[in-house]
Write a structure and sequence with these properties.
Mean pLDDT: 86
Largest sheet: 6 strands, antiparallel
Oligomer: single chain
Distance between the termini: 49 Å
Number of helices: 3
Helix content: 10-25%
CATH class: Alpha Beta
Number of domains: 1
CATH topology: Double-stranded beta-helix
Shape: globular
């Protein structure tokens, strides 16, 4: 007997399949990006953010959800979705809403978005997220929050 389950992202976006075997220590995920997992040992964990500056400046709260196990997980991401493998010591600075997921081996930190004029008038907020390898990161160009703001009726 064949059975089917259908899942769909909560807003117009792409479905990103992630082979969990490629992430043996697990994968941190942003809130609202997980759709489904296939595998008997797929599980969630919740970890504490290591520093107060990350908790306050990055807008991710004091806890970070993560996926662990084998099989496949499916994430939703909008716009262009990019997977980047960071080498040891290689860093990328992204807007905090652009990150979908990152390996637990990747170091996360807050970085000032710029000088006072950029922070006050540039529309980028106070801090960006700095991710330092080794490990994989998944980045999106149109988060659910951005999509909702762009298509909201005034």
């Amino acid at each position: 007997r064949q059975e089917h389950v259908t899942v769909s992202p909560p807003y117009p976006s792409k479905v990103i399949p992630v082979a969990m075997g490629d992430h043996p220590r697990g994968l941190y995920i942003s809130y609202g990006t997980w759709m489904a997992s296939v595998g008997r040992d797929a599980d969630f964990e919740v970890g504490c953010v290591p520093s107060f500056s990350q908790c306050c400046c990055l807008g991710i709260g004091c806890c970070i959800p993560s996926l662990v196990g084998s099989g496949h997980s499916f994430l939703s991401g909008g716009g262009v979705v990019l997977k980047k493998a960071l080498r040891e010591g290689e860093s990328v600075v992204v807007e905090k809403t652009a990150i979908l997921a990152w390996d637990k081996t990747v170091q996360m930190d807050a970085q000032c978005a710029g000088g006072a004029s950029v922070v006050c008038c540039g529309g980028m907020g106070c801090c960006n997220m700095k991710l330092t390898g080794p490990g994989n990161i998944y980045i999106q160009s149109m988060s659910g929050r951005k999509w909702a703001m762009a298509y909201s009726v005034s």
